[in-house]
Amino acid sequence: MNIFRLCGDMSHLAAIIILLLKMWKTRSVAGISGKSQILFATVFTARYLDLFTSFISIYNTCMKVFFIGTVYFTIYLIYMKFKATYDSNHDSFRVEFLIVPVGGLAFLVNHEFAPLEIIWTFSIYLESVAILPQLFMISKTGEAETITSHYLFALGSYRALYLCNWIYRYYAEGFFDLIAVVAGVVQTILYCDFFYLYITKVMKGKKISLPA
Amino acid sequence: TQHTSIKDEL
């Protein structure tokens, strides 16, 4: 565990808590993509199957259980409890265009052709693009609430901090995972446009609104 | 450099 990794995890944790607080306090899931959350649930479920096969640390286990628990609770809030506020018309990204190629790629490009390893690889690839339905929704509606922007900033920062973690680990431990690094770079690049808007608008007290 | 099959990251 190094400082980049810890900050990355804390950023990820903060993102999830910000999203839950937004939904709970406003009793609304407006502006949130249910499809992105379903993709994240798929990512966590696929990646954390190793909860049953290997124990790493109390920290590791607690975080995994928290991530899985909260993402399913988020889906419950979007599709059941606060369903009336869910903007399904604008959440129209076709997720099969992500799942199918990502599944195929996980079969073709992996570290080892074994079930758990392929499922892990699938989760890494899927995570890198899972935010697309959310970004697509914002581009369709042309705006994002400030709290939603904070959520996205924390979520995007998490993988950027992991990139720093991997650079550190490469030099400190000789650890290098090409699949995670390439997917992490792709994931971070997808947020760049948003990061720019966040820094130029949200940090100056304005909300994100795109020209029509 | 090494790749570990035990994933210690989240």
TrEMBL record, chain A:
GO terms for biological process: protein retention in ER lumen; protein transport; vesicle-mediated transport. PROSITE patterns: ER_LUMEN_RECEPTOR_2 (PS00952). The chain crosses the membrane at residues 65-82, 94-113, 119-138, 174-199. Its main location: endoplasmic reticulum. Keywords: Endoplasmic reticulum, ER-Golgi transport, Membrane, Protein transport, Receptor, Transmembrane, Transmembrane helix, Transport. Pfam families: ER_lumen_recept (PF00810). InterPro entries: ER_ret_rcpt. GO terms for cellular component: endoplasmic reticulum membrane. PANTHER family: ER LUMEN PROTEIN RETAINING RECEPTOR. Belongs to the ERD2 family. This is ER lumen protein-retaining receptor.
